[in-house]
Amino acid sequence: MASIADLIAPGVRGLTPYQPGKPIMELQREYGIDHVIKLASNENPLGPSPRALEAIQAALTDIARYPDGNGFGLKQALAKKLDVALSQITLGNGSNDILELVARGFVSAVDEVVFSQHAFAVYPLVTQAMGATARTAPAKNWGHDLDAMASLVNARTRVVFIANPNNPTGTWLDGVSLLSFLKALPGHVIAVVDEAYFEYASSADMGAPGYPDAVQWLAQLPRLIVTRTFSKAYGLAGLRVGYAISHPDVADVLNRVRQPFNVNSLALAAAEAALQDIDHLNRGVQLSNKGLKQLTAALTEMGLPCIPSVGNFVAVEVGAQASRIYDDLLREGVIVRPVANYGMPAHLRISVGLPEENARFVSALGKVMAARS
Ligand SMILES: Cc1ncc(COP(=O)(O)O)c(C=O)c1O
């Protein structure tokens, strides 16, 4: 009789599951530490808008019913905000879901998918799951090297993934370079511009002049898919809501492979309400931008190089002992993110928390690094 291992689909055979940040309760269980802070998954420390919580409360009475499989209310609100047609929007169970829909809708085992070294971990995962070939372009200064990526595009390329800004590096591409790269792609290539951290990077006080809004390019680039999420700046990571904006024909393909009820009714209601609370959104973004400066300044003062970031996180070089420092920080009740699996074994990625959480991390890091020196 064949073993289970013999039965695995070829693309899935070599897959290892996505490694999420360590949950707070797990650390509490393992180490018996009460006061744990988690700066490991680029979440919003301010939490969601109170309006989102009210909307969830109101939607609770109806959870015996299936959600609106078309997500009409949320799509309508997004279409209005982004000035696009309803038919251009696809909703996902987080934007991860959308990335997978892109692979399932467009990529087969004979195709190639191009992305950058140190790019978001889900791109290689969804590529491999389809049994397709990943072509990884070497990074430049930790960021995407568009020339190197362009040189990997060939007749077999079906999808190019670009995170702007990228996670875990926080690096970003300016509009002029990115648009000219996208315009030069051949007609058989679907380009995904992943804007999970758009609200941070595009904010005036982030200071990233020339950071583009790729949605503006959809009219001239019918093979472009822009992805965004409610998990970061909107503080709804636990509910899993993301979306794609694309040409309606592309959205039609994504919808063919989408599960009928991939976004639940509480998530739909909360996301729609959260979109309306601009003040809360701005407060969270400003808090994060200030915290990013606080963290970067403190780390730089400790002599630790930070990769300049426009997200709500920063990758800091702590040296060859990064994984031990990560463990030591856990014992101090501080969860950060090791990024050796991104080809960055000397770095740790720190999500921006509340000011007091950032300060606690800095002091814990100082303590564990002093103990190891
Ligand atoms: C670059 C990037 N894209 C997409 C995602 C997926 O987020 P979600 O599925 O919560 O929308 C993340 C999450 O960390 C990310 O960093």
Describe this protein's structure.
With 373 residues, this protein is an alpha/beta fold. The protein is 40% helix and 14% strand. The protein has 15 helices and twelve strands. The chain has helices spanning 4-7, 10-13, 24-31, 50-59, 72-82, 95-106, 122-129, 146-152, 175-183, 198-201, 248-257, 265-276, 278-301, 322-331, 355-372, and strands at 37-38, 89-92, 112-116, 133-137, 157-163, 190-194, 224-229, 242-246, 313-317, 334-335, 337-338, 347-351. Strands 2-8-7-6-5-3-4 form a seven-stranded mixed β-sheet, with helices on both faces. Helix 6 runs parallel beside helix 7. The chain is globular. The mean pLDDT is 96. Pyridoxal-5'-phosphate binds next to helix 6.
- SSE string, helices as H and strands as E: HHHEHHEHEHEHEHEHEEHHHEHEEEH
Main sheet strand line-up: 2-8-7-6-5-3-4
Overall morphology? globular
The percent range for strand residues is: 5-15%
Percentage of residues assigned to helices: 40-55%
Could you give a short account of the major beta sheet? 7 strands, mixed
Number of helices: 15
Q: So what's the oligomer here? A: single chain
Distance between the amino and carboxyl termini? 55 Å
Structural class: alpha/beta
Low-confidence stretches: none
Q: In total, how many beta strands?
A: 12
- The rounded Rg comes to 21 Å
Bound small molecules, by name, code or SMILES, are:
pyridoxal-5'-phosphate
Provide mean pLDDT, rounded.
Answer: 96
